[in-house]
What does this fold into?
Amino acid sequence: MTQVKKRVVLHFPGFEPLDAAAHRARYARSAKQSATVWGYATDVGELRALSTSSYFDVSSRGETWQTDSRVHILDHNDLVGKLNRRNLVTRLVLGYFAALRVAVGGGMVGYFRHAWRFGLFFVFPFLLILAGLLLAVLVATIPYDAGLGHWSQLLSVPVAILLFLYVFLPLTERLHTLHLFSDWEMAVAMAGLRGLDANGWIERCASEVRLALQEPADEYLVSSHSMGSSVAAHVVGALLEREPALFAGKRIVFATLGSAILQCALFRSATVLRARVGLIAKCPDIAWIDVHCLTDAIHFYKAKVVALCGHVQARQADIILIRFKTMLSDIHYKKIKGDFLRVHRQYVLGPDLKSSFDFTLMTAGPLPATSFTEFTTKNLPVL
It folds into this structure.
């Protein structure tokens, strides 16, 4: 197996309120865990800013190898922050409008057809907030229904509002409910490329990716997590549309972790995204690996993304099935397994134990990213 000595990583994070500095800090913590588990040394450099993205350098070394990686972070924290800073009424109204567009646009039917747990993930925040609103209405009307007259609502309505704002909503925020409202707004924008300056953001990312692909390297790894996979597919697909020669002769790996491309691609309006998925799948210079985990409900487990985007005859992504339970200690796994969003983040977090998948090893280790398709719980990576 040929060792990778120089790698360029283009990482598209999921829909999280984290800027590039926070992603770099998370990566450094995970790299420290990985190095301890596997017995190698790693140094994570300082963050350096570019126009749209930021990057940091990672140097890793073992007894017989050394790998230098440059990790570009193409986060969308500015957009996340803009969406989450709006007033509550705006977030609720636009969130429910996004949910309606998902349902009418064909997304919801596709979710329940191909990954029923993802369908439940979609309806969950909207049903939860709806339950809270109905409960507030019930509190506001109970005194009147009990025969106390309209004057009683001078007290009951403010009480209902206060209970919703200062009791119910804080409880739901433990589940990041309003954040998920914004997530679905972005999903709608990435599906139809309308609103939230989706096209502008994709073009700015494409400019950074174009420059990064011109850096000398043994391997170019485009990694993406969750919602970031739709952004990555748009960006790489847009470059393939216009500059296919940019990819020629390079070892390029398109790695989707807990991928939610189908979150956007199942919309009837997502014709551009589906076409770009096909371009990536058909490009002979790109190897696509799709990392799935059964205990992660927020992705399309075992779904063949390329085929479901209408490219049945094209080369399908190599699906890697992993188990978070084998990556973490029993205590750690028991602590997180009830938090579906925390479980969903584990793809890009550090391990407690050696296992068949490790994000730091894939992005900063000596093994080619495609080699992870060969590893299992009984056939672990060897450094």
